[in-house]
Request: fold
Amino acid sequence: MRILIVEDEVKTAAYLRKGLSESGFVVDTAGRGDDGLHLALTQDYDLVVLDVGLPGCDGWTILRSLRQAGRESPVLFLTARDSVPDRVKGLESGADDYLVKPFAFSELLARVRTLLRRNSGRGPGPLQVGDLELDVTRHRAVRGGQRLDLTPKEFALLSLLVRRQGEVLSRTLIAEQVWDMHFDSDTNVVDVAVRRLRGKVDDPFPAKLIHTVRGLGYVLEER
Ligand code: CA
Reply:
């Protein structure tokens, strides 16, 4: 999951970058509004964190430009304390959520995760890898024309693997993204879940999609 932070206060930007990176996100930062807008228009982000007052161009302008360009990534606004007009203006411009400065990082992280979860059902059509098809909106997984009977956790795990197909995902990252928890040492729960998922997704079919990368984690891809 990639997040863009547009924030001109160097300390705040560094604090957010560190916290979000440690939480498993890939983070880009921009200290100027115009640079942030350029990044947001040319790269793909799952979420954008926007400060309001920025050199170059302000947060509102960035949000409006993104929506006009058809960019639907959720936007979390950072606004000054008790700035009601800002909130109203943000709502009208299509912001998805607000956080009033100063805020606790845990609060920001909770909002970010909620927005990402809410947004994961959007997007165009089913995801496909080989003969596996995943319809996130309808919570449906089909392989070789056969509907797979998955538990909600298995579905979440499979959609993470499919969404990031070709990318080796560590057990820690999987635990965090699927269970929303940190497993300091015992990531056995991930191995157990992957084994069960394989039983449904791979075992009945000749071509295997889920692969173990020793010492690193798991990857889903056609080989
Ligand atoms: Ca600012």
Summary: The longest strand covers residues 2-6.
